[in-house]
Design a protein that fits this description.
349 residues, alpha/beta, Rossmann fold, 2 domains, 8-stranded mixed β-sheet, 5-stranded antiparallel β-sheet, binds S-adenosylmethionine
Length: 349
Amino acid sequence: MELPVELRNGIDSLLSGFSAEELKKISRQLTDRYKNDSGRGNVLVSRDVESRVYAAVRMPATFGAISDALTYVQECMPETQIRTVLDVGAGSGSGAWAVEEIFSPEHITCLEREESMRSVGNALLRESSVLSEKTSWAQFDLSRDPLGNESPSDPSYPSDPSDSSDSSDSSGQPCTADLVLASYMLNEFSKESREKAIRKLWNAADRILLIVEPGTKEGFAVISQVRDILLSQGAHLLAPCPHEGPCRLSDDDWCHFTCRVQRSKLHKLLKEGDVPYEDEKYSYIAFSKEEGERAQARILRHPYITKGQIDLEICGREKNGKVTLRKKDEAYKAARKAKMGDAISNISL
Ligand SMILES: C[S@@+](CC[C@H](N)C(=O)[O-])C[C@H]1O[C@@H](n2cnc3c(N)ncnc32)[C@H](O)[C@@H]1O
């Protein structure tokens, strides 16, 4: 997967003027902070230069993961039109770029707590005339500010009255959107405060809520928490799971997928890597207000292809298991082109 060319150019110009050594140092500091300081509700990126480096280092991967997850959502609701989007904890805006590629909505609202992130995100979106016209940014703290049809009883709402807070419509009511997206954000909350945040996000979704997290054990724990809370509220699970029963993975396993993103020269420099691509591991979950077409089965690991045979590990509607497909099997042709994370039909476990 490639970043849109305007975004790639925008990121390059954001970092021109900084020395490579300084950028590499900040990149290492951010990596440490995300590794050691997440999950406690702490602010992880706040300085302008940190937000610029975040954009350069993480946007290719988060753009790729969100785009992949949106594609899977679209497969489950092929007829649904997404006109409005709320990207909560939007960071430097990768969600807006991904949503534009997949759904091309009429309006996107990016809600973000940190000023430096909003400013970098806004600068990048201005590289695209289409996105800059349809996207607005607002200062917003998911821990404090009302969202969806919550009443703005909190006296701190809106967080900053001088801000053009697009988390409310012209009547002052907090707004909702067809699609609510929160990517790589909920893991920054503590487990206890996350529960309320999840309910708020669901409340704001008129049709679909999509949560994307790192494809790690910790990221998957967030996804599992979202799954449990929303299933208990009667939400319809869209993807990736083919079923709404208890997850059948063992405690030491976690459901994640991979997307390959091309790396720019700048990215290779900042991450001190040689290969021309990066494989981003991500986990996601999507819920909808109306029932969608859930996958019959989903491929959990990289397909193992040998001559005339494909071995798949599958999560199915009734059970999980391994399947060997041969040329005579109905699903063989589709499986040849499939990758880990894809839905697959006509499989019997
Ligand atoms: C790791 S970044 C992810 C940014 C973007 N969604 C992406 O996928 O690239 C997490 C973002 O969530 C924001 N954030 C964290 N807690 C928040 C909160 N309580 N309210 C709003 N934004 C929050 C952070 O400021 C940061 O920009």
